[in-house]
Write a structure and sequence with these properties.
Number of helices: 15
Family: Belongs to the purine permeases (TC 2.A.7.14) family.
Structural class: mainly alpha
Protein name: Probable purine permease
Oligomer: single chain
Subcellular location: Membrane
Largest sheet: none
Number of domains: 1
Organism: Hordeum vulgare subsp. vulgare
Keywords: Membrane, Transmembrane, Transmembrane helix, Transport
Number of strands: 0
Order of helices and strands: HHHHHHHHHHHHHHH
Length: 391
């Protein structure tokens, strides 16, 4: 599958970065030297970073989706402003960007950066794709109840498995294929069941087919963006340090925000924002706070997503994102009055089953990596013992 292997590489890459250039400690070249097993502190440090990013994704995604639905229910109607807030929180990343930029870098780990024009073109392209994806999600959330929207979004893992196979050389296994099929089936259950739309949200009548299609399209594009992010780390930047992660997140989201703001003015929706604010049911302050916290939530989510792509893989990142989707229907039932009927319950259980199928494959691969490391370490110890005995 590759995810567990990437975990090992990520841990190994953090240990003093020795052997990046020059000669390994035992006198062999870096190309032939066996990588030393990661220490306990390195493994703990790596898992701590991963867990922080997971929390950012799960919490940020759930809150952002809930606030997005509340914005529409309380009288908000600007699709472009709902798109802008998904990427305009980039200034929050500036302190972290400056902090990691000032950190000293070891000379042996320096990587020649690609030309500025190449990096700029990549970040701009990712930003345009992200802006289009955000706009489709804005339409989809307007046309669907939050619970239905979240269940259909689970298909993003299926799309990402395909993109990861072609773009990131991710291997397919029976368990991954099973996960893809189950998540696709989960979305199909929601798609064919129009009776599962019971909700107290202000969802336009007759827009279910369009909302379903837009959610599928947005999920596919989101998966493509994650795979392209990983491809950029692996093939272009050839580095996945925290600074590289923050830089890609900042500039791609800045480009997306510029495109979204341009769309807001070109569409003419900006002229209606004052009246929309006055007509917001909870008041002008609530209107501003809803948009502000939505922007903050999406920014935290994006930070977590980018961190997981760099630390593990785009497919693992999508798995974590999918974990949070079952939370949204529950939140929608509690706060928005959505009806959780039998079809939605079944779809959610199938989605969880598909997620657990992928996690089990991840567990098997991680166990295999640990076994190979132990065997390699034992062989090295035996070789060293024989060498000392013959001297």
């Amino acid at each position: 599958m590759g995810a567990a292997g990437e975990i090992h590489l990520q841990i190994a890459g953090t240990r003093g970065e020795q052997g990046a250039e020059g000669v390994a400690d035992n006198g062999t070249s870096p190309a032939t030297a066996a990588p030393a097993p990661p220490s306990m502190s390195e493994r703990v440090q790596w898992w701590a970073v991963v867990l922080v990013n997971i929390v950012l994704v799960l919490a940020g995604q759930s809150v952002a989706n809930l606030l997005g639905r509340i914005y529409y229910d309380q009288g908000g109607g600007s699709l472009w402003i709902a798109t802008v807030v998904q990427s305009c929180g980039t200034p929050l990343a500036i302190p972290l960007l400056l902090y990691f930029r000032r950190r000293p870098k070891a000379a042996t780990t320096a990587v020649t950066r690609p030309p500025l024009i190449k990096i700029s073109a990549i970040y701009a392209g990712l930003g345009v794709l992200l802006a289009g994806d955000n706009l489709m999600y804005s339409y989809a959330l307007l046309y669907l109840p939050l619970s239905t929207y979240s269940l259909i979004c689970a298909t993003q893992l299926s799309f990402n498995a395909v993109f990861s196979y072609f773009l990131n050389k991710q291997k397919f296994t029976a368990l991954i294929l099973n996960s893809v099929v189950l998540l696709t089936f989960s979305a199909a259950l929601v798609g064919v069941s129009h009776g599962s739309d019971g909700t107290n949200s202000s969802v336009p009548a007759g827009k279910f087919p369009l909302g379903f299609a837009l959610t599928l399209s947005a999920s596919a594009l989101f998966s493509l963006i994650l795979s392209l992010n990983q491809l950029t780390f692996d093939k272009v930047l050839r580095s996945d340090t925290l600074y590289d992660v923050m830089e890609m997140q900042f500039w791609s989201n800045t480009a997306a925000a510029v495109v979204s703001v341009a769309g807001l003015f070109i569409s003419g929706e900006w002229s209606a924002l004052h009246g929309e604010m006055d007509g917001y049911r909870k008041g002008r302050l609530a209107y501003g706070m809803t948009l502000a916290w939505t922007a903050i939530s999406w920014q935290l989510t994006t930070m977590g997503l980018m961190g997981l792509v760099a630390a593990v893989s785009s497919l693992f990142t999508n798995v974590i994102s999918t974990v949070g989707l079952p939370l949204s229907p529950i939140i929608a039932v509690i706060f928005l009055g959505d009806r959780m009927d039998g079809v939605k319950v079944l779809a959610m259980l199938v989605a969880v089953w598909g997620f657990l199928s992928y996690i089990y494959q991840h567990y098997l691969d991680d166990a295999k990596v640990k076994k190979n490391l132990a065997e390699r370490s034992a062989d090295d110890d035996e070789h060293q013992t024989v060498k000392l005995a013959t001297e």
